[in-house]
Amino acid sequence: MSNDILFLAEFAVGRPARSALELATGAAELAAASGGTAVGLAYGSGATGGAAALGAHGAKHVVVLGDEDRPAITFAGAAAAAVGASAALALLAPATPNGRDLAAALVGLLDLPAFGPVRAARVVDGVVETEQATLQGSVITTARPVDGAPTPSVVLVLPNTFTPAEGGTGTAEVTTGADVGGSPFGKAKVVESHEADARVANLDEANVIVAGGRGVGGEEGFALLRDLAEVLGGAVGASRAAADAGWIAYQLQIGQTGKVVKPQLYIGAGISGAIQHKVGMQTAEHVVAINRDRDAPIGEFADLYVVGDLFQIVPALTEEIRRRKGGA
Q1: Of 187, 214, 238, which residue sits at a domain end?
Q2: Same-domain pairing of 251 and 179
């Protein structure tokens, strides 16, 4: 067994997905602790031309599974061949639809142990140990492979678990993976596709998020939050209560059963801050909360807690920001 850490890297039109940059950085961090190297398994449109650039984020070597624009699951055969030949310690896979498909295929094809989706990973005693939120976020479970388990462990990683390294100048060595023919996964094809709602797509990478909960009161209340998000150049999110009520798209839900975000600024309006929601945004650099209830749980971890009526505070805050930007 080697001490290398593998990671899946999805490409589209020659550009790596954000998850690829996050996992390249995460794999490099784990490899530094294990004494190995970070090795990418790249696939998707333009992967061949863009793979070397993953070196700037920590990858030492990248195996290109294919650079065609086709369903990710069709690369499962080539991925299995690369993983089987590596004897690596772990494989990091993004907890995205494509990442989940490939991870599940690899677990089934190679009979590998799997963990996740995880919120943290580290190397302990020569194995990768993971942390996963369970029971709706009320319990954090630590897990690792049992002695003698097959390698690599497949670790499904939540978005924003790792922060992409910036400013690197390294270049990864690039090789081409084995062309595996006859895999049943290769028969998959796209029947129909739709562009993701821009609001949903922007939430994962937003530096500023304005989120609303039950206290927003309805769809009309979210209009105030969208105004604030617009002047801040951010995105709108929601708690599960607001999404379940149908006030906002389910895809904008943040929390244990929704998205995990890591903005520089998180403004929560009318959100109680129960543990299920906290799991999805607790790594935000700065948290501002607005709530009528001075005893709401979110006040315990907010950097700034404003007790008051969001229907008065949010519009006033929006107008003040507009005024200051207009005078800049």
Answers
A1: 187
A2: no
CA 17 vs. chain centroid, Å, equals 11
Q: How many C-beta neighbours within 10 Å does residue 46 have?
A: 17
Written as six digits, the tokens of 43 are 């696939």
Q: Residue 305: beta bridge partners?
A: 289
Residues 6+ apart with CB under 8 A from 88: 1, 2, 3, 4, 5, 6, 36, 39, 151, 152
Preceding peptide of 16 cis, ω within 30°: no
Structure tokens at 214: 């039950």
Give the domain extent around 305.
Answer: 198-326
**100: CATH:** 3.40.50.620
State the number of CA atoms in the 13 A half-sphere of 264 facing the CB: 6
Amino acid in the structure at residue 165: A
Which 3-state string (H, E, C) describes 144-168?
Answer: CCCCCCCCCEEEEECCCCCCCCCCC
SS3 212: strand
Q: What is the pLDDT along the chain (328 residues), one digit of tens a residue?
A: 678 999 999 998 888 998 999 999 999 999 999 999 999 999 999 999 999 999 999 999 999 998 888 888 889 999 999 998 888 999 999 988 889 999 999 999 899 999 988 888 999 888 888 888 766 556 778 888 888 788 899 999 988 889 888 767 788 899 988 776 667 777 777 777 766 555 555 687 788 999 999 999 998 899 999 999 999 999 999 999 999 999 988 889 998 778 888 899 999 999 998 888 888 888 889 999 999 999 999 999 999 999 999 999 999 999 999 998 876 5
Strand partners, 287: 266
Would 192 be classed as within a structural domain?
no
